[in-house]
Design goal:
Nucleotidyltransferase, domain 5; alpha/beta; single chain; 10 strands
């Protein structure tokens, strides 16, 4: 029985996991708070974590029907993320683990996303009995990664974003269009009624054989386009067409590089996770391209795409089952922790 906490950015989450089953997964979002500023304000995010953490953890345990004495272990996101935000959840988990005499597992946020497509509400052993080597796309507001996963807890990073992540590009493009924060969902909603070929935007690095991504050039191209066509986004249908065209450019890069990497590596399975995988265009086009090339596709359940403690708890349990050592009680958070890096003392 594991209580997991997630506070890497602007969502306070607590979950209780038992043998791979998610007994509760409570998320307190801060979107409305940060919308006024057009992005996440780290100081405000930390303040809200401190305010919400105890009520959220209590609710998670109440929904699971347990108390602190029933816990066998604690888990918390250790990195990467906003330093003070990470510290709010991680130190809380450290304190509770020490007071109860239970082990603590400090979890890598991206690694939790990496295995979230395999969570199916079944016993842990059954879930990973179905596991197969795969090429995984992790795509969110802060990160875009391609990772080769050869076995549970065995993976290597092939490439990542060189500048702006895909989700960041969506949010910044939305701001240029005058849309509210968070911009990604706004673009997705409007794109559904727009023409994806109405305007031509660049596909950065799409033809390069490497596994890296770059979206800053696309963002700049959108800015210059709007400067040359003032008032275009004020027309409702033109705005929809702009959103559809921008989304098509981002999605084309993500899908093309992901499927190409999977085929070059000779793997038969593709997985996708992270907040941007909620984008309907990405889900649709990735599914269609995988089907065309006879690749099996697993995408995280919608409730596990955005930041949440359930995936942290399931991964912590997998670490425990695989014999990984708990995190030392005096460990610090690791805000810049790279997925391929070991931060053990």
């Amino acid at each position: 029985m594991i209580l997991a906490l997630e506070t890497s950015c602007d969502e306070t989450s607590a979950a209780v996991v038992h043998e791979g089953r998610i007994l509760s997964n409570v998320v307190a979002s801060q979107i409305r708070l940060h919308a006024e500023y057009g992005g996440v304000v780290p100081e405000l995010a930390t303040r809200e974590h401190l305010r919400n953490l105890i009520p959220v953890a209590r609710r998670a345990m109440d929904e699971a029907g347990i108390g602190p004495a029933n816990l066998d272990a604690l888990a918390a996101t250790r990195g990467p993320g906003l330093p003070a935000a990470l510290r709010a959840g991680f130190t809380a988990a450290q304190g509770l683990a020490l007071s109860l005499g239970r082990p603590l597992f400090g979890i890598h946020h991206h690694e939790a996303h990496l295995y979230s497509p395999w969570i199916e509400g079944q016993p842990l052993v059954a879930q990973f009995d179905r596991f197969e080597p795969n090429l995984s796309l992790i795509v969110s507001g802060g990160h875009t990664l391609l990772v080769q996963v050869t076995a549970p807890l065995e993976h290597r990073v092939l490439g990542g974003t060189l500048d702006d992540a895909a989700g960041e590009c969506f949010d910044k493009a939305a701001k240029l269009l005058g849309l509210a924060y968070p911009g990604g969902p706004q673009i997705d909603r409007l794109a559904a009624e727009g023409d994806p070929v109405a305007f031509e935007f660049p596909r950065p690095l799409v033809s390069d054989p490497n596994h890296d991504f770059s979206f800053s050039g696309l963002k700049t191209s959108i800015r210059y386009f709007l400067q040359k066509h003032p008032g275009l986004a004020d027309d409702p249908q033109r705005l929809r067409d702009l959103c559809a065209s921008i989304q098509a450019a981002v999605v084309d890069v993500l899908v093309t590089k992901t499927v190409r990497a999977a085929r070059n590596l000779g793997v038969g399975c593709v997985t996708a996770s992270g907040g941007v995988t909620l984008n309907s265009g990405l889900r649709r086009d990735l599914a269609a391209r995988c089907e065309r090339h006879r690749l099996r596709l697993r995408i995280s359940a919608p409730s596990l795409c955005t930041d949440n403690a359930a995936m942290v708890g399931v991964l912590a349990e997998l670490h425990q089952v695989q014999g990984r050592s708990p995190t030392p009680s005096d460990a610090e958070v690791a805000p810049g922790w790279a997925l391929a890096e070991d931060v053990s003392p």
